[in-house]
User: What shape does this take?
Amino acid sequence: MALDKAALVEFIYQLVAKAQGKKQLKAMDLQKAVLKEHPDQNKNDVKFAIKDLIDTGRCVYTYFGGSFVELPHEEGAAKKV
Amino acid sequence: MSDTPLIDQLETGPWPSFVKDLKRVAARKPAAKDLLRQLDRSYKDKITHWKHGGIVGVLGYGSGIIGRYSDLPDEFPGVEHFHTVRVNQPSGWFYTTQALRDLCAIWDEHGSSILNVHGSTGDLIFLGTTTDQLEPCFAKLTAKGWDLGGSGSAMRTPSCCLGMARCEYSCYDTMDLCYQVTQEFQFDMHRPSFPYKFKVKCSGCPNDCVASVARADLSVIGVWKDDIRIDHAAVAAYQAGEIKPRGGGSPYDKLDVKADVTDLCPTACMSFDGKTLKIDNKNCNHCMHCISLMPQALRIGTETGATLLLGSHAPILEGAQMSWVIVPFMPMESPYDELKELTANIHEWWSENGKNRERVGELMLRLGMRAFFKGVGLEPPAQTVRTPRANPFFFWHAEDFEAEAAGRKYIKL
Ligand code: HEM
Ligand code: HEM
Ligand code: SF4
Ligand code: SF4
Assistant: This one.
């Protein structure tokens, strides 16, 4: 069953949090993961749920040869890699 | 002795030198001084000392700021952070001097004051600032009505030739289309959610002044369907040497219409017997050769629109590709719903099927034109056959047999 807005935001946050440090997820990976569990979820809801996580600062976009959604963390590139 | 003996040599040639410019900036900005020193070091070490990517940006955006760091921050503290800010350019790169002054003032205050006008994406580029200056710089830009452009795995800032603003060849209003596509895809420009970058470039005619055929995932190139308009008196004037070729922008004073124009037509569809110029328009491939040489005698037709091509990119996963025709002719009238809808369908098909860092042109080759057309809901036109010896075969889908049994005709008269 499709999640309501708050539950969807939380569901996606958990996906990002669990992957942190293990696998970098792209926005499309998140959408696919949501649709796997909730096939009737509107794709546009997923886009706006990610926007919500970014706008509130709970997640950030990163770029490492491609763009990913991650939890905010220390800038790895700032000093020595 | 100078700290930068190697790059100092670049000032000695006859050309304008970026080293000279940067030294002028270095007098007031330590970042520019360390930029020069680090570059000199790279000339010696023969490797770059830049690292890029990471996490920097402004709140809410995943694009527009490109993280840049020195890998020798202790030696070159002025460029420890040297982030790039992409500012979305106005269509056709028209600015008022006031707008340029505003931009320069913002960048003097919040960055190195070094500009790249413009980058190959089309954006006006602010080169070099520190993380703490990003939000205040962004706030001042938006207060003046500017926004950031695209970067990362996102819709990139669309760009266009100056089109109808200054060019009589323009087959549609490139500046309007560029602006409208920029507005339509704002969400995807600021929030990267594609497999990789997606660029749209709009040229008003096949001269393709923004090189969209080589540099855009979606190339929108103006074209006409009817006949080239001929002014026979002007043809005679060119032949007599009364009008200079190429609007005067040519080293030659006089055209030989047969040798220089008609004999060089790539499809041999023109002829000139010394008096009358004839064009077999059905066989013209709109290369622009004849029109560009004799702009006063020949003009584009009146039934105009654009050809859409997909897929060009530099080598990433696969080698470089040029864009490939997907729609031979689409009328280009505001609000461009057909183009916007098709672009959104392409994004969806590519996002669904593309691998990380796979450009849409690479996906089209990997899965085939057949899967592409079906996926985005387009009819396959004959003009997509690029190399007749290699891909003349069309493999039917099961539903085509049913459609045929129900009376579908392939040749529309
Ligand atoms: C009614 C029977 C046939 C039809 C309709 C047919 C049709 C075709 C077509 C449309 C092509 C592609 C042409 C091109 O690439 O420009 C082709 C190529 C070819 N066919 Fe056939 N074919 C038939 C019978 C045969 C037979 C019996 C043989 C061999 C014993 C054969 C051998 C070939 C070969 C070797 C090519 C490649 C030619 C090349 O690339 O230069 N075909 N055929
Ligand atoms: C030692 C024996 C053979 C050699 C060295 C040889 C060599 C070649 C070469 C170099 C080509 C051109 C490939 C290309 O265009 O890239 C070719 C094409 C061709 N060969 Fe052979 N060949 C041999 C035997 C045969 C035999 C026994 C047959 C048929 C029974 C055959 C049928 C063909 C056909 C139909 C083509 C055209 C393929 C196409 O255009 O797609 N060849 N061959
Ligand atoms: S692409 Fe064509 S229309 Fe655009 S500026 Fe160049 S010549 Fe003119
Ligand atoms: S535009 Fe090119 S192909 Fe067409 S008539 Fe002129 S030279 Fe020939």
